What we know:
- The chain is mainly β.
- The protein has one helix at 18-26, and strands at residues 2-6, 10-14, 35-39, 45-49, 53-57.
- The strands form two sheets. Strands 2-1-5 form a three-stranded antiparallel sheet, with no helix packed on it. A two-stranded antiparallel sheet has the order 3-4.
- The longest helix has 9 residues, at 18-26.
- It starts with a strand and ends in a 7-residue tail after the last strand.
Amino acid sequence: MIDIATHGGIIHEVDLQYEVMKAIMADSFIKDHQFIDFKFIDGSHGSVKKGCIEFFYESETEEV
C-alpha cells in the first residue's frame, strides 16, 4: 500500500506497490493529462490525472 498526495495536499491511500507507482511516474508514455486508475484502500475505484500527483510514499504501519 502507498499513499499519494494530489494538488491541494489531499492524501489518498491506494492499493499499489511503491515500485509500480515509481515506474508509472517515470514512464513518459503516460502523459501528465492522462488518468491513472487506482483501487483505494477502502475498496473503491477512481482515477487521478498523472500531472496532479505531487508525491507518493510507502509507509510502514504496525499491526495491532
